[in-house]
Amino acid sequence: MKSTHDDPTLPEDHDEIKREELEALEREVDGLKTALGTRTLIGKAIGLIIEREGVNETEAFEMLKTMSQHTNVRLRDVAARLAQEAQPAGKQEPEAPPP
Fold this sequence. Notes:
Largest sheet: none
Number of strands: 0
Shape: rod-shaped
């Protein structure tokens, strides 16, 4: 593959390296978006537990974690279910992005 640059100090495969770096960065951004969505969802679930059970944030997270472990369901999925159940009828939250 012929390089599209004229700088003789750069390796011939410079364009390919740039493309690979760009693809890696795009995957990282996608992962960060997913992580942020998951974190937000878990935060909502913790807030719901705090409100319902009158516990602090640490206790609420432990309760959420216990629910996840006892049902063998991922933490984010338990959090999504709690958030969904708390929505008034007809006011559905968008689903969290897939992992």
